[in-house]
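Private note to self, pasted from the team thread so I don't lose it. C-alpha cells:
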C-alpha cells in the first residue's frame, strides 16, 4: 500500500486493520478507492490508542462498516480506544458527505485465528 506523497508511519497499515466481508479476508486498495474510503482509513490510522496498540479492526459488509476490538485481555482502556476511533471515523465519514452515527452494540467475545475479538458496533458507509 503506497500512498504517494504521504509520510511513512509506524502505525499498522490499512491492510492489517480493514477487511472485506469477514475478519481476515483481504481487501484491495482499489476497492477502497472505488468506494471513496481510501482517505478515511488512511487518516483514521493516526487515531491515538493506548500504547499505540490500535486494537480496532474494521470489516466492510455491503453498506456497513463493522468495528471490532481485538485484545489479549479485556481492559477498560479498550473501550476508550474504541470510542476514540469511533469519533475519528464518524468525523472522517462525514467529511465524505455521509451522515451516519455509530450503532453501538457490544457483543460477546469470540476467537478467530487465535485472536480474541468483540464486535463493538456498526456505521453506514
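Design output:
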Amino acid at each position: 500500500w503506497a500512498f504517494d506523497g504521504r509520510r511513512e508511519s509506524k502505525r499498522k497499515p490499512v491492510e492489517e486493520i480493514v477487511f472485506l466481508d469477514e475478519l481476515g479476508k483481504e481487501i484491495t486498495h482499489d476497492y477502497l478507492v472505488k468506494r471513496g474510503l481510501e482517505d478515511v482509513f488512511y487518516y483514521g490510522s493516526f487515531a491515538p490508542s493506548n500504547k499505540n496498540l490500535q486494537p480496532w479492526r474494521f470489516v466492510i459488509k455491503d453498506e456497513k462498516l463493522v468495528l471490532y476490538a481485538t485484545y489479549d485481555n479485556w481492559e477498560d482502556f479498550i473501550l476508550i480506544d474504541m470510542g476514540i476511533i469511533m469519533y475519528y471515523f464518524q468525523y472522517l465519514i462525514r467529511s465524505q458527505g455521509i451522515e451516519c452515527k455509530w450503532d453501538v452494540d457490544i457483543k460477546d467475545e469470540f476467537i478467530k485465528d487465535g485472536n480474541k475479538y468483540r464486535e463493538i458496533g456498526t456505521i453506514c458507509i
